[in-house]
Automatic annotation (TrEMBL), chains A, B:
PROSITE patterns: PABS_1, PABS_2. GO terms for molecular function: spermine synthase activity. The keyword Transferase applies. It catalyses: S-adenosyl 3-(methylsulfanyl)propylamine + spermidine = spermine + S-methyl-5'-thioadenosine + H(+). GO terms for biological process: spermine biosynthetic process. It comes from Oryzias sinensis (Chinese medaka). This is Spermine synthase. Pfam families: Spermine_synt_N (PF17284), Spermine_synth (PF01564), SpmSyn_N (PF17950). PANTHER family: SPERMINE SYNTHASE (PTHR46315). SUPFAM superfamilies: S-adenosyl-L-methionine-dependent methyltransferases. Belongs to the spermidine/spermine synthase family. InterPro entries: PABS, PABS_CS, SAM-dependent_MTases_sf, Spermidine_synt_N, Spermidine_synt_N_sf, Spermine_synthase_animal, SpmSyn_N. It is an enzyme of class 2 (transferase). Keywords: Acetylation, Phosphoprotein, Polyamine biosynthesis, Transferase.
């Protein structure tokens, strides 16, 4: 049973004495049969809490610098019309009491806390966003990560790995960007996909009749979940691990890349669709950047001299992480040039950077 | 001075006695010198509030059905590291106390309440979303609406009319969709734009050398704000109200449309870029739908028999409002066919429906 948490805030043009605000509101709380507690705030304005009989909790704060905040917590199955009435009454009354002194009123959609289906999946740049998720379609823990597939009315099913939105069925823009925006000629080419367990890239590229696509995905469980629940993304391509012009290896890409380097094998395209680069740049994560650079280095080493390397980067807002990534591109054993592109991937709710790199 | 409001929630696998949770946490609150009040909840679990010396407020609830919620409110300039520590201590301690009984831990990015720059602009389908807005670039009240232009790091400047995100500088996808996805030939054509005060459509279409674009925007203040602050959208097209192949009338489009109908004047393209259709379908708003139908009807009457009518619809999730709109399309004095398209407009944070209509 979830808790709905409403907030209703008033920015005032000038600070007010709580004595002028509070008494006028109390009648509303008393009507609701809420038990009142007034707290000592040590000079930080007025604070009262009101507890109702059905688990309702109201918090009223009149901050001394000119902000009134109201919180209303209730159970999900509580009478929504009654609560709307309560909030509307409070809003109306405050508008009368603070006549002309309100610079802004803000009533947000309620936070739903502890719900069976979690709708809040913050962006990579740390913003609070609510998705229209109504169902958990798939959830498993693999040895590598927590795998969820969530249903959204507008985005279709969404693959979420360790809490990060990876790809939704609406996100053909992602597949387009990471395969070169439809400007590449894959016909007869050798392609290597690192990761890509949702099958989106593979399903797109087989249409172009490449010579062979080799995909290396560490997690069979991701493939297994996506082949059932992300069919708008992968079609039937994941139904078998081997087709006319593709083969999927379920293994860690690093040893395989090292083997290809030893064998001198090259690919016309290397597409890195592994999970996002780490956002934290704290010193204890140096090893993550080193790991990323290792994969980058190996990828470029198996790239044909005229080949292209495509990868996703990060949120366009995470400029520090993007700079660090570009720094790694300058430290490879084989020098590369690169360009980047900002793309709107529908389900991400933030702009995303994609990179193309090639040997100098 | 804003309030940061953190939430930290624990879904439990099985309900617990608050007696087993609360004592272990109290030492943390006491360390923080928080004054405790325990509330009578009439059998709805445990509820305690803790007030600190610097305006901090912590609310701890152990709901009897297996949910623990913690709220932490503090002032914006409060010591963020200390607060992180407090939340981390609470999280760690609860993980020890509830050993193995936690099904989900959720710590959301804090809500920032009462801030000078408001970052929360809910979607048309009513979801809570936080934008990366760091500056109010322009704000005025016209006789028609509240006009804001807000700066977002990733979307550029965003035009917000009466609290609705209208268009950001990143949103060329909107302009493309409402002008026919680049598949129309505007050369030598007569075009009528209803609304369009941000100048995006006008700036796009003049490139195609139409015979004449007539744009009718009711609000000069929208044009005035956009011509200064939305230049990635409008370029210099709004610097003058009249150019080689366009003219902008600052007036209500309805009388003008009626005049055009009387004169028998027609256009090859009519592009309705007025603000979104109403979401509410409550009876008292019937008149809004009637008004919408009037505009639709007049627009189709001034449309050349082989012309096309483009308009934005609504959030893809507002299926009821979309159906009602399509119902209006069936009630026009001149029968039309239509199709619709779902488009990702970057700054909307939701999928949006666009319509194309033409005379049967």
């Amino acid at each position: 049973m979830a808790v709905r948490h409403y907030t209703l805030d008033f920015n005032l043009s000038t600070a007010v004495e709580c004595a002028s605000v509070v008494p006028g509101l109390l009648s509303i709380f008393h009507e609701q049969e809420l038990a009142e507690t007034i707290h000592d705030t040590n000079g930080h304005g007025y604070l009262a809490t009101f507890v109702g009989k059905n688990g309702r909790l109201v918090i009223l704060r009149v901050h001394s610098h000119g902000l009134v905040t109201i919180d209303l917590q209730c159970y999900e199955e509580d009478n929504a019309a009654q609560l709307d009435n309560l909030l509307n009454s409070l809003e109306k009354k405050l508008k009368v009491i603070l006549n002309g002194n309100i610079a802004r009123t803000k009533k947000l959609p309620p936070l739903v806390r502890g719900a069976e289906v979690d709708r809040y999946w913050p962006t990579a740049d740390g913003r609070l966003v609510e998705y229209d998720i109504d169902k958990v379609v798939y959830e498993e823990d693999s040895p590598y990560q927590n795998i969820k597939i969530l249903h959204s009315k507008q985005y279709g099913n969404i693959l979420v790995l360790d809490g990060d939105v990876n790809l939704a069925e609406s996100d053909y823009a992602y597949t387009q960007a990471i395969t070169g925006n439809g400007k590449e000629n894959y016909a007869g080419k050798e392609v290597l996909i690192l990761g890509g367990g949702d099958g989106g890239i593979l399903a797109e590229l087989v249409k172009h009749k490449p010579k062979m696509i080799t995909m290396v995905e560490i997690s069979f469980m991701v493939i297994d979940g996506c082949k059932t629940h992300m069919r708008k993304t992968c079609g039937n391509i994941l139904d078998t691990l081997r087709g006319d012009c593709y083969q999927i290896f379920i293994e860690d890409c690093v040893p395989l890349l090292k083997k290809y380097v030893r064998e001198g094998r090259t690919f016309d395209y290397v597409i890195n669709d592994l999970t996002a680069i780490p956002i934290s740049t704290s010193p204890e994560e140096d090893s993550t950047w080193e790991f990323l650079r290792l994969i980058l280095d190996l990828s470029i080493r198996v790239l044909h001299p005229k080949g292209k390397y495509f990868t996703q980067g990060n949120s366009a807002n995470l400029t520090e992480a993007l700079s660090l990534y570009e720094e790694q591109l300058g430290k490879l054993s084989c020098p590369v040039d690169f360009h980047k592109q900002v793309v709107c991937v529908p389900s991400y709710l933030e702009q995303w950077v994609f990179y193309t790199a090639w040997k100098k």
